[in-house]
Task: inverse folding
């Protein structure tokens, strides 16, 4: 399991008074607690993630006893599906628990990026983060799945839903075709 409250023991021994309780979760652990066999944990299954929330809820209940703000972070793996991550973000939002994306906005503020513009990066197919909601959707849930500091550009990027970061770009950039010939000349630039 990737959930832990062991920091409480260390803080008491060291005389520290932390400002928050951080629960680290994995999609795999949630699915395992939702009844998925070990060999099938890499297969996307948002419903199994939802079933695993009973386990997460127990940790949230324990963390509430400390009287500190609680943050759920996701130790993300490549096999984690976007729908699975969205389910966790919605669960946290529904239980008034900060998630990793909110942890990142606070971190940006602490590093001096609290007053910079925020770029809401989303699908080009909808006003929402759901590409299937066309036209002018009136009621929808907006999910921010991650956030990044674009320090050079001077803004924060809120990543909404499953998006292609650079629309219209090829999966294989032209740089992959650039080479040099036997005389040291660059070839394949066009």
Result:
């Amino acid at each position: 399991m990737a959930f832990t409250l062991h920091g409480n023991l260390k803080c008491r021994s060291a005389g520290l008074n932390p400002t928050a309780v951080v629960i680290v979760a994995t999609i795999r652990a949630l699915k395992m607690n939702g009844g998925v066999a070990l060999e099938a944990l890499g297969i996307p299954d948002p419903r199994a993630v939802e079933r695993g929330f009973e386990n997460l809820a127990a940790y949230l209940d324990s963390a509430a006893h400390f009287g500190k703000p609680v943050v759920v972070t996701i130790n993300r793996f490549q096999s984690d599906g976007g729908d699975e991550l969205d389910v966790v973000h919605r669960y946290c939002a529904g239980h008034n628990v900060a998630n990793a994306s909110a942890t990142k906005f606070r971190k940006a503020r602490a590093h001096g990026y609290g007053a910079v513009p925020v770029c809401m990066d989303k699908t080009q197919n909808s006003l929402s983060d759901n590409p299937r909601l066309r036209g002018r959707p009136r009621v929808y849930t907006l999910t921010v799945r991650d956030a990044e500091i674009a320090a050079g550009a001077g803004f924060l990027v809120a990543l909404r839903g499953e998006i292609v970061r650079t629309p219209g770009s090829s999966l294989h950039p032209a740089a992959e075709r650039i080479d040099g010939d036997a005389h040291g000349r660059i070839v394949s630039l066009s």
About this structure: The two ends are 51 Å apart (CA to CA).
